[in-house]
Structure prediction request, 701 residues.
Amino acid sequence: MSEPMDEPMEEWRRRTYDPAVAKRPERRDAFHRSSGEALQPLYGDGADGEALGFPGEPPYTRGIQPTMYRGRLWTMRQYAGQEDAEASNARYRFLLDQGQTGLSVAFDLPTQIGYDSDAPQAQGEVGKVGVAIDSIADMRTLFDGIPLDRVTTSMTINSTAATLLALYAAVAGEQGVDRRAIGGTIQNDILKEYVARGTFIYPPAPSMRLITDIFDYCTREVPRWNTISVSGYHMREAGCTAAQEVGFTLAHAIAYVEAALGAGLDFDAFGGRLSFFFACHSNFLEEVAKFRAARRLWARIARERFGATNERAMMLRFHTQTGGVTLTAQQPDNNIVRTALQALAAVLGGTQSLHTNSLDEALGLPSEHAVEVALRTQQIIAHESGVADVIDPLGGSHYVEQVTDEIEAEAAGYIERIDQIGGAVAGVEQGYQQREIMEAAYRRQLELERETDAARSDGAPPGTVGAVKVGVNRFVTSEAAQPEIVRVDPAVGRRQSAKLEQLRARRDGPAARAAVEAIQQAAAGDANLMPLILRAVQAEATLGEIADGLRAVWGEHREAVIV
Amino acid sequence: MSESERKIRVIIAKPGLDGHDRGAKIVARALRDAGMEVIYTGIRQTPAMIAEAALQEDADVVGLSILSGAHLELFPHVLDACAERDILPANTLFFCGGIIPEEDVARLQAIGFQGVFGPGANTNDIVDFVRERVPAPA
Prediction:
């Protein structure tokens, strides 16, 4: 390297970067600009002090890995799932054939809320927003021909996460893959379900216990599994601000850590398996700053609040999804541009994996063509834009650094407020997070409508009185006919019910019932439920039977309605 | 409006299992801010629960929201449960919203939903719609 470098930067290279490259080479020997100039891995004078730091070192403002995307690109992980296991299996194979590098399973609402497909509550919802999974037979079909030692799988599943993880581990076992070798993530974040997403079953206390059981079990038995994905995404979708997204998410993470500590777990041992999930919206530089602020704040919390010494437990590793709520039903092609901007911000913010939304998601389920464009968007950013060839290229921008500081401070303020009211669980019970989100959502709505009023009365130029939504309240055109909508086959509910009937006729009924009763007994005490749930799914107990068993012991959560 | 004039009474409800209630809450709040008496039921309501709420609250208006795509299956069940309690499109204003494809709008209108509002709908338009269409008190 001919350029003279400042001393702190050289020290970082010797200390962290060079050993990382020696251990695993970067994607190529050298990265170049169009004129042939070789790129440095990192730019800056290294004089910005501890707040900024260096990639791969606490507080990770500039990224959690020493080489970031020069070493390995983020995981391109499109959330998908529809109808039954057969249809979803076909979609996963298509995505893997197209170059996707990880799976992300969307389950239907009955699966997420612990109802079998033939339960009265499931009527009309089977297979609608994801795949219907009732038993190990469905799970086997879902991953048929997909080697579970070679892909990692993220599952958006919360109150029934223990059951789905058990099903995954059981199917891996049938494929000959040891559960110690499987990798993936369960969302397993119940607090944001109470706050924003709605797929809760049990009251907070037993729900938190189920989560700590999973932490404990996986630390010992499924060591490569990310046991939780603490999610800001859905709170952002529900209307909160970028700073609230960080503050509430980290406050929820604190509650999970405290619950696990209360159960006797060691933060250094399980902290490295915590992962996070954020949205990315269209205010480009604010979003970049948000991710950097979240990383720095979590590293500080891990060290100062929980006394972490294991660096992995200080790293905020996160998945990003572009903002579903930013998409418009009007002029849907514009959504490709929105998604591309948001995806680029997520990459410049240092995400570990990314889902890009499809252009037609404000209209219905994504078509195969729309999913392909969304995946191609990530591939263009990865391979054509050059942003993956240097580490944290926006680091050191006066604006980005200041907004990073501001969001960190605002988010810390929300955490402090939640601490004052007794923690995140108390906050949920008092409706604090829900109220804050609703207020922010309503403010946003009024800004959009001020703009609508101005547009209708021809009163002011775009963007001078409210918030512009292109194609919705400004730059409106008469709409072309909507593209054809993907429909879920209405027969899927009947097919699932027939499968359940066959399963119940075929299986050893008393054995399945006994396995569920064993779960119930343990649920009334304090033994870890995971081994028992695993045994129950192997005995072909259904997801709904297990959830009903726990409902009978723990009761059901009743939502406090806040408008 | 004089003090004695009865406020328009509205039930906003989410049938089915989906938890996306940002839209339902915003509509509830906007109607309330416009001077109406609004009850938002919360998520995961069965058709019978919604119909019972409409009966108990003596609702003039029932607004339903679904974002999971289950609207064609579930909305008719809500209408049936309401009809059992003599809450009919003839005496009550029904409207709905969510991720509802264009091609479903006519079907929903045909079974009794006078308004179908999709993404990007303006709450002022919904307020005006309710004021114009709400049935006169018997």
User: Anything to note?
Assistant: Chain B has a mean pLDDT of 94. The longest strand of chain B covers residues 61-66.
